[in-house]
Amino acid sequence: MTVLIKENYPTFKIAQVNGRQVILHRIDEISLDRPGFYSGTANEAKFEIFGGKHAGGSSREWFVQWDALGDFHMDATSLTDAINLIEAA
Length: 89
Hints:
Blueprint: E1 3-6, E2 13-17, E3 20-24, E4 27-34, E5 37-42, E6 45-51, E7 62-66, E8 73-76, H1 79-88
């Protein structure tokens, strides 16, 4: 899965996740550490997104751990859903 952040918009950034576009307000950066594992920062707090087939689960098992929420994992059904959870928190 690829995540491409476009910063050519004056007031917000757009992440393109496998052809889907997500408007970013909180997420500052996101990168692929290894297949199925992403990390980045949102509002200066680190987060990790992991899951999917490459991480050893099903394609609809994704998890978000964000330092701003403490030691708590949020469940998501896709990488796009995981990014939306951070943006909506």
